[in-house]
Amino acid sequence: METQILENYLTDRHDVTVIETSVEIPIVSPFCLRNPMVLLKTFTLHHFQHLVEQSQAQIKDQLDYPMNECFVAAGRMEELAVQFVPYLSRYNPRAKILLITHEMADTELVQLFHDAWYRYRLLQLIVLNHRDNDTIDSCVFNPFIKAAFARGSIDFEQPTVRSDLDCTLLTHELEVLPYGWQLKEFVKNRVRNLNGYPVSIAMHISNGSSSAYDCILGAVSITDIDQEVLSTLQTKMNFSMVLHNNELELSIGYIHKNGTPVGALGLIEHNLIDLAANSRIMYKYDTRNLLYLNYISTEKLVFLTPRNYYSNRDKMLVFINPFSVAYMLINIVLSFGVPMIICLLDYLYYRLALPRNTQKNTYGAKVMSLLGIILNLSVRLPRAPHKRWIIVGILLYNIVSYPIWQAVTIRYLHPSNQLVNNINSLEQLLATELKLKVSHYHELIVRSEGSQLHNPLYAQLSDRLTTENTSSLRDAIENIIIDQDSALLISDAYVPLVLAGNYHWVPGKPDAIWPIAKPIYEFYKSMAVPKTSPFIDTFNSIVVSCLEAGMNDRFMHQLESVVQLMKMKRTKEHPIERDYIVFTMAHLSPLFVFYFSMLALSGCIFLLELIVHRIQKARARPQPFIATVETEHAPFEFVL
Fold first, then answer.
1. What is the number of structural domains in the chain?
2. Is 14 within a domain?
3. What CATH number does the domain containing 29 carry?
4. 129, 103 in Cβ contact below 8 A?
5. CA 362 to CA 450: how far, in whole Å?
6. Degrees, nearest 5: CA angle 598-599-603
7. Owning domain of residue 334
8. Is the model's pTM score more than 0.85?
């Protein structure tokens, strides 16, 4: 019967360790196992104690409690309770334990279970107490249905009595198989229904919600995903909460500069809580007893920066940039320089009294002819080449002025220049003199993010990060809005609330914050438990069920609704007063007035020139035309 019970109890275990004591109680059942997958090891009690002490001295980093181990030991009360159970709790409190005794008194048996759970946190314990050669009293313990807890008491020192144990008297092998099924169901349900058992939980709860949004939300209250998951855990497992309510950073926990775990991390390290319910970044802390549950969500860290940090940089980029400056300078030089060179050459031409017929069909004349065709001139050009070059220079200068008007139009068409006047990348942020701030909680993680440290930008960022005045999210936001000399690394989930918030306590504009859109870091987030917790599997299964039910999406929709309500409230209390001009065609009316005025003026001058020309032609005496060789060549003529 002993062997069959052990086989049923080891269905999910592959490593059996037999501890031999000094008493004459034989251990036969482990050596009769028929499962070839089971690895069997044997230690004496003294050797096992030495092994535990040696392993504890060697462990410098994380504790490791394998889930596939089972320990079998036989002995009397003084050996099991004093020499074996305390050492096993240090070695692997999550292992399954089968203790074999002979004729142990009920008081000793009750005290053994009481100490195993309340002092050493060993829950998966089964005791086979032989009454005689053919009778076994198999006992297990469910501390979560004790009468004291059913009455709402949370006193762990309440004594355990015989009726608190679940004992089954087995007298025949045929009773073992149904008992095995009953035992599996008992073990499964023991950690699924806690019957009001008080579970110690660390969670930041403020303003009715378990979040860091309280300083932003004001009178609005939301329940974030951590609170939703915790509520589901409480409903499914039926436990009461002993709440450790601290500030968010303490509730999440971080490592102090001296290496001490602070907040929830310290409570987990010393097994003072059962669950740290504020999800935190899954990071390898310098702790030994921390275990993460299944990841709940991802956390992306972005920087909040002062809005319009680069004041009027949009104008500089539109009007004064290397390309536009070079383009305009070259065109201006060509527009003025070429005509001046031609004028100088023309002056030398007349000064040196060169023959006039040598200028016929020159390269310059052909160029002027081609330009006249390209520019589609509709008036007669002057006959003198230098005058024509001056006209061409003026036309080119008009072409150069076109980009300036185009830049003015672009400036009006894009009244919101946030992508130009704000910081939009890590490179731009590092080029500023802003104080780069990060919370205590995120500091250790981002400084030690090994996957990014090979990037020079992230190495420079790590050197500049500081935790000065970051203990309060409210203070950090105030510094950005008022002083505009700092930037804060924050979770992207807070950004919509920050941008929609009504900062009544902050003088000045409430929209003085600009977030860098691209996340700087990205991590997984999860709740945390001590590695000794017996509820790990149950917690994980419920968390996975919550995620599969779409709890993340539901929370994001809820958050979006709250943000919209806050924006409506803010618009009502602070009507929008734009600090820029919304572009309409009316803003171009001066340009059209100037254009049509110049057009009308040029038309009047053209008509006046026609009248003067006709009058002068009528008054002029007709003279016979005599063709001479010295007539100045005109490259092209247009008929009016």
1. 3
2. yes
3. 3.40.50
4. yes
5. 72
6. 115
7. 313-419
8. no
